[in-house]
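subagent[fold] <- orchestrator: predict structure for attached chain, return tokens only, no commentary.
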Amino acid sequence: MTLASERHVRTARHPERLRAAGLALVSLAWVVATNAQQAAQAPDSKQEVQDGNTANPCVKPAPMVSYRDYQGPFQKVVGAFGRRLERRSAHPPHPPNYKPGAVLCVLDTKGKFLLFVEDTFDPVTFIYAGFYAGLSQAQNSDRRFGQGAEGYGKRFGASFIDQASGEFFKEFAYPALFTEDPRYYRMMHGATRSRFLHAIGHVVIAHRDNGAPVFNFTEWLGTASAVALSNTYHPGNRRGFTPAAQRVGFGVSEDMGFDVLREFWPEIARKFKLPFRDQSEPLNQGSF
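subagent[fold] -> orchestrator:
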């Protein structure tokens, strides 16, 4: 086989690897959903709070703001990003607005799967994929993808799978396996410094489905799994522990920044006169 033909075969394999990575995510989703469904079928006492002899229903998060609630182009563009932040946010019920002992409703396996699907096919995900694909093309990363429209298309596909695999592992697969809640628990009240530290600490401390604090296994294992998977369809990725650790660190830092935005999104939304989740609850005074 000549050098040119070998290069052609290697180039032709990259779309196949992209398809294989996509099929792998679908297969893993089916396996995790099947295994986790057995636990979900059992009655879960965590869905209720016992108050004496009376069972109080758990507290569901406020409904998402609809696109129709945003007025004008500016609000709709900013609102698209805001909805993505809000989808993975939750505000635990605390007195005096709720009775003592009230808890959030458990996000079951189906809810975690829907969260993964909604975030994966959110318009913002395609914007991220297009941005990172353009950045990769400008830097000529993954050179085997080539340039032009074909090269950009391959980079876009790879970038989209990057986004989808991260959402899959961190919002569905590992949360279902470890019974962790993939949502960020918004503090919403208190000193700005305390809320900031609470937000950046979420990459270390998460919550189980029953609200108990736990090490954030899903963040670190999910990011590492997505990085490992990306090596199968990114021909330009540097191999080895150090490059992988750097990509994991970048991914965790990015999630940390989004958690800070989730914490302070109500103040940001009110500043720009945007509708937001939990807007009926009074905000912390003096944060912004």
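orchestrator: received. Logging for downstream: Confidence is low (pLDDT under 50) at residues 3-12, 35-54. The radius of gyration is 21 Å.
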